[in-house]
Amino acid sequence: MLFSKKYCIIIIKYISYSIITANYEIKDFLENPGVDYMDKKKCVSFILSLCAQYKNVIFLVMCLAVHFLYMFVFFIMKIYPFAFINLLSTAFYVAFLIFSKDKRSSEMSTVAAYFEILIFALLSETISRNTYGFIFFVLGMIPVIFFLAPSYGNKRFAFQGVGIVTAVLIDKMQLFIPESYFKQTFSALSLHEQNFRFINLLITLFTILYVTFFYKLEADMMRSELDYQCTHDPLTGLYNRRFLYDEIKKSADNYISVVLLDIDNFKKINDRFGHDEGDDILVRVSECLKEEAKGADIYAVRWGGEEFILYYKSFEKDKAYERITSLCRNISVNAVLPDNNGVTVTAGLAHGKVSDFDELVKTADTYLYKGKANGKNCIVWENNEAQYSA
To answer: Would the CA dihedral through 249, 250, 255, 257 be positive or negative?
Structure first.
């Protein structure tokens, strides 16, 4: 009992530490001022992704709980061979959990747990002459190990082969072990045969469902990540051209405003302060654009290099001009160079129908060029084009 109590305290401390750590991560996520209301609504997804990160540890805790409960059940039933086997298994899982400090070590522990389950099932079914349904554990783990130990690559096929051989041996157990073998134990076991087979079947099905759930979760997360990479610029996190053109194809032919922005003297910034500072300026300018594009009718796009596009759906050109004026001021305040000078941008604003998007971009580019040629740090559109045409 002292042995069990000591290691129970260790594992409870370990689980508590993991839960507290996860709680702090969730709390930081919710209290982060940069996270808006819609992101906070995704907290459930965040928690699930956190569980996916620790799926191997959760699996080991589940196995520990099963062995721990079985140890007491068989001890109360006075079936001491089973109680002793589950006591050893409990000790193994405590060691596995203590060792599982990162993803790599948790996978190693899971592989060790896989072979422990095979040995446990083989010994248990030897004692019960294949009547208690511990073979279900083996059958369940054969597909499960492939998902829980991805870093082992093709070795997982060998692991599965060992599992298949073990399952066949267990299935033929009654042919090799006479009924008189472990007669006293077997007669005690036979009274509860159907109950334990049903319980072990449920445990196995739950394990398979658990792994299937996290497999789907990780597949969805990977698909979302790929979608993000296909539609976003990797440096700034803004949308890219591909995303914008896809949105245009799906849009009705309404009037839009297109703003083409360019950071002034960006080459000089790179030459004077270095490319790292140049990248930092791109990111800070992009943050201002993201703030501007929080509305559902605005897209902020990195068009290329230091050029950006703001796409205003169903916006009148006067309103778009006012917003861009405010945005330019915001950029000069928030994107500051090491010499304490604020970054400036030049913008060209064009207005027209969605179907003429490419022509609108050319028009905005023409306005932008006129602004660059006549002082920079300005917004050029049809109302002031003549002023910048000299």
So the answer is: negative
- The residue among 92, 59, 79, 156 whose CA lies nearest residue 124 is 79
In a domain, 234, yes or no: no
Number of domains in the chain: 2
Residues 6+ apart with CB under 8 A from 149: 107, 110, 111, 114, 156, 159
Condensed to tens digits (0 to 9), the pLDDT of residues 177-192 reads 776 666 666 666 677 7
Q: Tell me which residue has tokens 């042919």.
A: 175
Residue 21 one-letter amino acid: T
Q: Torsion angle of alpha carbons 278, 281, 285, 291, nearest 10°?
A: 130
* Structural domain contains residue 126: yes
CATH number at residue 330: 3.30.70.270
Q: Are residues 200 and 90 in the same domain?
A: yes
On whether residue 331 sits in a domain, the answer given is yes
Q: What is the pTM of this model?
A: 0.65
- Expressed as residue numbers, the domain containing 93 is 2-229
pLDDT at 331: 92
Helix (H) or strand (E) holding 260, with range, is strand 255-263
- Distance CA(286)–CA(235), nearest Å, equals 10
Q: Tokens in use for 239?
A: 């949308």
Give the pLDDT score at 16.
53
Whether 45 and 140 map to the same domain: the answer is yes
Burial class (CB in 10 A: 0-12, 13-18, 19+), 295: exposed
How far apart, in whole angstroms, are the C-alpha atoms of residue 49 and residue 155? Answer: 27
Q: Are residues 147 and 197 in the same domain?
A: yes
| pLDDT > 50? residue 90 | yes
